[in-house]
Request: fold
Amino acid sequence: MYSVILIYNILKIGGLGCVAFTGFVAFMAYSGIASTMRDSEGQFRRKKSFKSILGGILFLSFLLGLLFAANLFYGHSLIAKPSFLNLWLNSFGVFFVIHLYDLIVLDYLVVVKWHPKFLRLPNTAYYTTFKPHLSGFFKGIPFGIVTSILASLLALWFI
Reply:
């Protein structure tokens, strides 16, 4: 029974998170924050500016807040208080749905395949081939594990 609720919550909140993440990415792009964080090759800039640090803080806050909210929603849908493992599985599941959506829809379909002119993306390997995005996907998984742990620990205090 709990596994059905867990999967339902991952898919529901993950789907809503995909919509929210798309809006967040659009905000970051149109505010100019994203361009201060990455160079034309898609690499994170070594020299950090106030705007790029702000972007990193905004991204971490957005992700942590979303995973925390997913855990609260999941925890309040159960009769008993969920364990840390259940909360972590929930938050990592939501993260993974959004991360996979980012890879397939945003990175591959929009950036690489469609490559729309209105986004003014450079014609470098990062923006025209799939391999760097796939590499970034795998590099992002440890970040998701840690963020999910933090969101789960926070949620334990509030449920």
Q: What stands out?
A: Residues 84-114 form the longest helix (31 residues). Residues 2-158 form one domain. The chain has one domain: 2-158. Residues 87 and 152 are 5 Å apart (CA to CA).
